PQQ-dependent sugar dehydrogenase (Lysobacter soyae), 390 residues
Amino acid sequence: MKTTRHQLTALPLAAAAILFAACQNGTAGNPGQNDAKRDAAGAPKAMNLKRTELARFNEPWAMTFLPDGRLLVTEKKGNLRLFDPVTGKTGNISGTPSVAYGGQGGLGDIALHPDYANNRMVYLSFAESGGNGTQGAAIMRAKLALDDQGNGQLSDGEVIWRQVPKVEGEGHYSHRIVFATDGKMFVTSGERQKFFPAQDMKANLGKVLRLNDDGTSPADNPFFAQGGVATQIWSLGHRNLLGLAFNPADGKLYEHEMGPRGGDEFNVIERGKNYGYPEVSDGDHYSGKSIPDHKTRPEFRAPLMTWTPVISPSSLMFYTGKRIPQWTGDALISGLSSEALIRVKIENGHAREVERIDMGERIRDVVQAPDESVWALEDGSNAKLLRLAP
């Protein structure tokens, strides 16, 4: 059974349906194309969704549900929080790794091992110092124990993966984690704003990686014979990959990444493929220097779609519930600069944006809850955790 940070959503949980105070009403917005019902004038009709504030966090980065319906939330400064939707209380989990906090660095993603119910193993990604002003992403796995007071502790923590090489700068760590149905772990590793490591097989920067659950490299990876960090690589030529999720409808792995100045991408990830960055992009360098478009280099795998102006995509999920039927089967992308949730429909190998929900704030993460509502996490200090449902 596939278990990722966005799953464990089919579990029955009455508590997740409880509404809390501080409710805000909102409606789904639209950027110009929408497959929802249309009004009498022919314009796309927005769907009414109630927005309920559940809690607040300090610079949250990622969240995932536990089997009992409680929610784990990471905060960039190194805190791991436990939110209980029944009581509305937020506790603390000790034992998190020391993080290099600054810029885009800090505590990042969190994922449960596919056999979490038996081994209680969780995975945390984070930025760590490397000495001489360098940093890099890493992944720690540890066992989680919870107490009766709504708190918990991580034990037996070990770092099982690191970015190579560590470089200066505090951007483009990426470090998203998802597990496949066979138990293999996929990790996004950003190019750390250094451009050309994305094409360097001696670096695991600018890549999607496929690992065993202990951080070792599977022997059937496409570049395993090259040795070194190339054994980890599943695909290459990526920039800043903040969204990674399997689509239950087709079993394929999808990813989105921030383009440079323009050209945010939505990709289907294929074994051994090169996605072209920085040789090609539908955006240009911030310096103004042009980058050839994808269409000029057909040897590289082109994205399914791109955005200019950018949406600054920050996380990705596929909605499998029926509570919001218009969304069933579609991808949901949280947006930072776009301050929105972006709904993408995938049909016959093509992707298109069909709805944009104006959230009014930068959105860092989005997940499906056990009761099939959608929970969105704002970015920054005093960030709201919001529940969206009809």
Notes: The first strand starts at residue 23 and ends at 27. Residues 9 and 61 are 20 Å apart (CA to CA). The two ends are 29 Å apart (CA to CA). The helical segments are 116-119.
